[in-house]
Protein: HPt (Histidine-containing phosphotransfer) domain-containing protein
Amino acid sequence: MNNMNFEQANMDYLEDLSGGNTQLIKEILELFIKQTPPDIELLGSYIQQNDWEKVYRQAHHIKPTLAYVGANGMRQELQEIESLAKNGQDLDLIPEKFDVLLPRLATLYNELKTYLKTLD
Structure:
């Protein structure tokens, strides 16, 4: 398929999962681009509220979706946020980790939109 090099995304897993079905890849990516920003926004609001139980659950909810688009670095960062919130230790690190994640997510969305255009 398309051998595009991305900073944040790796389409190998998705292409393997879909058997190279371009229409399925498009549907998964469009769903990801539509659904994850509100989930991330909700995570940010829970962090601002210091509601660590909800931070833990929301990070846990988002984390697997990043695997579909090969964003394993960000998946690991969400795992760190999830673990910190769950264990209740070093909670002051969570907002900083989240702030580092946000611009990387913006890059990811741009990469995925670029990739989608190649599938038309």
Q: What stands out?
A: Residues 15-118 form a domain with the Four Helix Bundle (Hemerythrin (Met), subunit A) fold (CATH 1.20.120). The chain has one domain: 15-118. The mean pLDDT is 91.
